[in-house]
Give the backbone structure.
Amino acid sequence: MLVMKSSPRGLLNVLQCPTCRKGELSLMSEQLVCSGCSARHSIIGSQLCFTKTADKDISQYEAEAEQFVNRLKKLVKEWPALFVFLTYAIGSVSFFGQKPKKTIEKLFGERAMEKLIVNVGSGITKVHPAVINLDIFPFKNVDIIADAARLPFKDNSLHMLISESTLEHARNAEEVIREMRRVVRPGGFIYISIPFVMPFHASPNDFMRLTHEGLKQRFHDFTPQKIGALGGPASAFVTFLMYFLALPFSLISEAAYNLATYFFMVILSPLRIFDLLFNLFPRHLEVSALIYFIGEKKT
Ligand SMILES: [Zn+2]
């Protein structure tokens, strides 16, 4: 199958109208028009826009962006490379497990560019050149703006779906999970990561955690290929300790609390190295900060 990352034309045969969840889409004067419900989805620059329902989320996101630390974050997000460097250099999560890029290389190798791989809730990160980024926010590097609970793809159409630390931010995670399971083709793969032993983190909100068993159960129509920790027990310890120590600062102000968490993160982040050891222990998933699940859809 020909997949053109730079043009919606190459995607047309796998796209489906997310409004009525069944209509075929055709390209008409720089809009994607649904054959079923006549909905018109706009193309802005190179971004396909399938959602207008994000207004509430966007206003909440913007309200939070007003806060000092979030303004800093937004600034950093303008420079993705710097953002990635800072995440790895002084984050609270070790990221020692198998990441999506490596997974794509292992599964598809040289043929990755021919595969239809979508990262749901990608944010600004392009994990591999073959990946199509989908997010509810029109960030830089996002190719498709859509609601994860209404994915604009036909049933069984994707070779792989990636979702990194996204499900916990969805208001309707069970619907999102159903959509993710629907769009991957039999024999196709999913890479899901979700926090487990992790404090509340709003971006713009935070609703849930899943255990490794929870992931297996939610994605029961996928045969587990690999389950591991992106952030192990040491990451969980660092994250809890930094929020624990910062907690008294929340008496002063929101900004003081946020600054304190960042301060303690910088101080404590070297301890994440102990995940190299702790991730070797057989029961480490039971106290891990961030768990990933790679599964192959059953045929
Ligand atoms: Zn439609």
Observations:
- Residues 174 and 218 are 8 Å apart (CA to CA).
- Residues 17, 19-20, 23, 34, 36-37, 39 surround zinc ion (CB under 6 Å).
